[in-house]
Amino acid sequence: xxxxxxxxxxxxxxxxxxxxxxxxxxxxxxxxxxxxxxxxxxxxxxxxxxxxxxxxxxxxxxxxxxxxxxxxxxxxxxxxxxxxxxxxxxxxxxxxxxxxxxxxxxxxxxxxxxxxxxxxxxxxxxxxxxxxxxxxxxxxxxxxxxxxxxxxxxxxxxxxxxxxxxxxxxxxxxxxxxxxxxxxxxxxxxxxxxxxxxxxxxxxxxxxxxxxxxxxxxxxxx
Length: 222
Description:
By secondary structure, the protein is of the alpha+beta class. The chain has helices at residues 16-24, 46-53, 119-122, 188-221; strands spanning 5-10, 27-34, 37-45, 63-69, 72-85, 92-99, 106-115, 126-129, 133-138, 147-150, 159-161, 180-185.
């Protein structure tokens, strides 16, 4: 995949009034953050951003952000840090970018991609996804689009833990505990029926013991 590219204009004006005006004019307000510089307010073209975000994996990979400021252009390596969307309209309200050094490792969240149809699901089980993202540490140029998990061989009762994942070369998955990522479970209705049956057996057994106890007490009273 070629490195995604996006153009931006540096903007001196900030504040809610300025941002509302930009959105009416088809622009998206944005901010660029970096460790070696102060934050920079930017203006993005809404159509260009929409086209870019339609590309799979673009939000988790490094892109070239070409910024025009005072008639000069400068290109920076950035990651999309945050996208703020309107609560009910199909509209991007604001974006945050983070400048990165290509020779220094960073830690980011990468989506989990599930492939295949588990054998346990074919037998009536349910695939339960416990995590939708996974934290990885690597150089910016090695960030994977997704972490792929093939569920095909999984049976009912099987669980995939983080230590079961083999990340791509140069990528590490930092974790302190071996937490679960997904599992194939018995449908809730079947679990409830089984639990009810077990409870019935327990109540029956308790009733039999109680009856036996009362019978013994009656015999001893005689």
